[in-house]
Design goal:
Elements: H1 12-18, E1 22-25, E2 28-31, E3 43-45, H2 47-55, E4 60-63, H3 67-73, E5 75-76, E6 79-81, H4 88-95, E7 104-107, H5 112-123, E8 129-132, H6 144-147, E9 152-153
Parallel strand pairs: 3-8, 4-6, 4-7, 7-8
Antiparallel strand pairs: 1-2, 5-9
Amino acid sequence: MGVTIMHKPLSRRRLLAALGVWLPLAGLSLSIPAASARDAAVTVMDPKAVYEKVKKGELLLVDVRTPQEWQQTGIPEGSRTIELAPGFLAKLMEATGGDKSKPVAFICATGARSAYVARELAKRGWTNVIDVAGGLMGGPKGKGWIASGLPMQKVK
């Protein structure tokens, strides 16, 4: 029995809106450039290593999938859910206590959204962002959380 993952395509505009860098103005969008144009470093970490650090309280794990996806599969044990939607950045700032140096790992279904989010945040001054290899279901960077046999929990 397979799991169907349904989500809205993540466009650059949707991600940037979630990060609070697009401002609607009379039906147009005005882009605010990243704090630095340089390519910021993002660490890619194996799901098992991420889970060990989550258990020890050494990093925050954020599931950036949609509420429908959370309901379908549950969420990684120890993770916090923050949907990529308007208000994302404010919720992330709240979760980190406003500390852009706090270690934060991002996970999605296959690793594409989480890599994109981590890269965009790193460009904007976040200094310790991690992309979970393969996401939840597995992808090009790894077999993922579920295939690694890591625990899941139901969404409350």
